[in-house]
Input
Amino acid sequence: MTDPAIPSPEEPMKPRALTYTEMMNGGRQQMDEAEHVREQQLQQRVEDLEKDVDWLEKLLKGGIESASP
Output
């Protein structure tokens, strides 16, 4: 079960939409280092949660013996 709003690890990261301020500043994206780190951490959390969901789905389908974390 994948969410189309969340890019898969196989797909290259698409640039995010520009904010109004960025559009008014010539269309340049402005992302400071702290925001970049937060976005990376959020993406990692999403990936970890997706792995947990996949593992739980395996547990429900095949029982505890056939699934491993």
Q: What stands out?
A: The mean pLDDT is 76. The CA atoms of residues 59 and 67 lie 6 Å apart. The helical segments are 20-24, 33-62. The first helix runs from residue 20 to 24.
